[in-house]
């Protein structure tokens, strides 16, 4: 009887240890995902008169460039993310929820952060002769 009690006690300790390891490894996924969300791009630069170089510095290289009627036309496609304050608040919120629920929040938090990762947008930009924005067309929102 004593041997059975010792085996049962050991099994409980092993089970508790495995559960603890699983909770520790699961906890923290949603805060990490929230902190690594894409940052917000300044789409206010997509206005007539803005120099092309300034636009490239903010949005990066275009996905397509062509010439139409002697004017440069470029297509920019990128993931519009979140402001820094929003990312920080989400990270702190997920961390606090993890602590208060002993890691159970990850069941909700991780899928939420996996789906709320910004949205892809695309713009067509036409430049004038001096490489300043002349016209902007929203292709995908």
Whole-number tally of structural domains: 1
Low-confidence stretches: none
Shape: elongated
Number of strands: 4
Largest sheet: 4 strands, antiparallel
The helix-and-strand class reads: alpha+beta
Report strand order across the widest sheet.
1-2-3-4
Which helices and strands appear, and what pairs or packs with what?
Elements: H1 2-26, H2 29-35, H3 52-59, E1 64-68, E2 71-80, H4 84-100, H5 106-115, E3 119-127, E4 133-140
Antiparallel strand pairs: 1-2, 2-3, 3-4
Helix pairs in contact: 2-4, 2-5
Structure characterization notes:
It is a single chain. This protein has 141 residues and is an alpha+beta fold. The chain has one domain (2-140). Helix content is 48%, strand content 23%. It contains five helices and four strands; from the N terminus they run αααββααββ. The model has no long low-confidence stretch (mean pLDDT 85).
């Amino acid at each position: 009887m004593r041997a059975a009690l010792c085996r049962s006690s050991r099994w409980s300790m092993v089970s508790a240890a495995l559960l603890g390891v699983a909770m520790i490894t699961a906890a923290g996924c949603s805060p990490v995902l929230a902190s690594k969300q894409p940052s917000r791009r300044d789409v206010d630069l997509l206005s007539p008169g803005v120099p092309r170089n300034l636009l490239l510095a903010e949005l990066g290289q275009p996905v397509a460039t062509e010439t139409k009627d002697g004017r440069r036309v470029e297509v920019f496609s990128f993931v519009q993310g979140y402001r820094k304050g929003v990312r920080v608040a989400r990270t702190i919120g997920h961390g606090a929820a993890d602590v208060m629920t002993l890691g159970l929040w990850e069941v909700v938090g991780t899928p939420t952060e996996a789906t709320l990762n910004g949205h892809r947008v695309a713009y067509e930009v036409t430049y004038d002769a001096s490489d300043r924005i002349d016209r902007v067309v929203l292709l995908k929102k």
